[in-house]
Design brief:
Distance between the termini: 57 Å
Structural class: alpha+beta
Strand order of the largest sheet: 1-9-10-11
Shape: elongated
Helix content: 25-40%
Length: about 210
């Protein structure tokens, strides 16, 4: 069944004038989570395809795509979901209502690079799911950018599988008490039962 799905994808792309590039995505030396997230977000913003998302944000669990805007300002350094707000790996956040599609790293399968036939500087990266369906197509104007995006996606996928994608909490400064945001961040990393988490969360917010 999987081979049939792959053959159907090849046939569809061939009909659209695309040929797969002989390239295997791999994490680049020295790449970290913040760099990979930046490359992926940039790729979605620069996508010139018809399905281009207006906003994109990488979290430790998934890529959030939106047809609205992404606000910038907070810098908790880790994805969160509280008070209807999701915070990304960098200094980005969006409300949960803004998210139109989530691409979960645990569901990402093959990441493939294609070139448009008879056209220069036209490339596509296909994000496939483990069920061999197409999660997203992102279009680029250079092979190097397409391959960089594919490598960053592979880094995020592997890091999620290894449990190393979520960054560490910021180190608390000596002396002054933690801010409310820092306390919430530390609370989220404790993996408490839901009721205990809610009690601690209300205590922090009531300070």
């Amino acid at each position: 069944m999987r081979s049939v799905a792959i053959l159907m994808l090849f046939a569809l792309l061939a009909a659209c004038g695309h040929t797969r590039v002989d390239y295997t995505p791999k994490p680049r030396p020295g790449m970290d989570a913040a760099q990979a997230a930046s490359v992926v977000e940039q790729g979605f913003y620069e996508d010139f395809g018809k399905e281009k998302a207006q906003s994109a944000m990488v979290t430790p669990e998934y890529i959030a795509l939106s047809n609205g805007t992404v606000s910038r300002g907070v810098n908790l350094g880790q994805a969160s979901a509280y008070n209807g707000v999701v915070v990304g790996l960098g200094s980005t956040y969006m409300t949960t209502q803004d998210i139109n599609q989530r691409i979960y790293f645990r569901s990402v399968g093959d990441i493939q690079v294609y070139k448009k036939n008879a056209r220069e500087n036209r490339y596509a990266v296909i994000i496939r799911t483990v069920e061999q369906t197409t999660a997203r197509r992102i279009f680029f104007r250079s092979e190097s950018r397409a391959e960089e995006f594919a490598d960053a996606m592979e880094y995020l996928k592997r890091s999620y599988a290894a449990g190393t994608l979520a960054p560490q909490a910021p180190t608390a400064p000596a002396g002054p008490a933690l801010t409310r945001d820092q306390q919430i961040l530390k609370l989220q990393q404790r993996n408490l039962p839901y009721e205990q988490y809610q009690q601690e969360y209300r205590r922090i917010m009531g300070q």
